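RETRY 2/3 - previous attempt timed out on the joint model. Re-submitting the same 331-residue input unchanged.
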Amino acid sequence: MTVQSSISATEGPIPTRDIEQGKRNLDAYGFTVHEDLLTPDEVSQLRDRLCEQAELECEEGVATYRLAERVDGAIADRKLGKPPAGASIAWQGVLALVNKGRDFIDLAMHPVVHEYGRHILGGTPYYMAQSTGLVVRKGSGGQVMHIDHQPIPFQIPVPIYFHAMVALSDFEGDMGATQVVPGSHLSGRAPGIAINPETGKAETLETVDTVPAVCRAGSAIIFESRLWHFQGTATSDKTRLSILNGYCMHFIRAQDDYVASLHDDVYQELSEEERRMLGFEVVTEYTGRYYPRYAGDERSNTNARYPFIPELRRGGSKHARPFEGMGSNEH
Ligand SMILES: O=C(O)CCC(=O)C(=O)O
Ligand SMILES: [Fe+2]
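RETRY 2/3 succeeded.
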């Protein structure tokens, strides 16, 4: 069923370098485009590093990607491993960037991002929730409209999470730029999503208009977790490159971090059910991904497995460790 939304999209705020204006934009629209967060040199250094890492994850057979194909009208499943030779990769995610180079850690700590973060989350302590490199090419099917705290089954009056989408290429409308509904953070609800029983894929129940958050390379789209948004479809020959850094309030996790602190000998003895109860289950789109700490780490999620992937440099000595039977890590 399609529900007519009561929200009507307006144009978003004008991109700005003024942090105080950016905060007002966040209050009024749920997002802001902060121009020139990075210098051109910083952009090219991060872009080169991200592209090198993305290419080597393909070559070493540990890439997370989607091909530019549609299956029954729906976007292709996410794959894990080595893309077939000559295949056209429409989307690639480079996960857990903080394990993959100092430049990515420095970006995660960017002081301007955190000035916005303190404003959005009202001073409540928060931590990094994800740091993902995104490569979006022609044929990429985009995402379903969502908010970033979508799984919370009730309305909340404040954001508890925010994202800094740092553009390493220009973001143009037809490059799969993030589509947003300006002002939707004040709607008091999350957009409706249903699973299509024929394709098994998520579909939106909304008919609201969206606008692309267009910006120049080096800008950051800062958005809070009540904003309705999604990755747009890409029809351009230009590649969209970005780093998506997410941060969540401190309590969006368990009191005790057993996934990190469980002793190895205790872990070895546990049943799958016990591991699940101690937090090893992952909901792949949202929380709990466990990446091996070293090649050969036996600890893993109960319902998914990720390969060990260090900082990969062309001609470098560190390598990824694929595992048997890789194909998809989504269940
Ligand atoms: O890639 C984009 O434009 C948006 C990504 C996003 O919204 C998400 O991963 O939650
Ligand atoms: Fe999102």
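The mean pLDDT is 93. Closing ticket.
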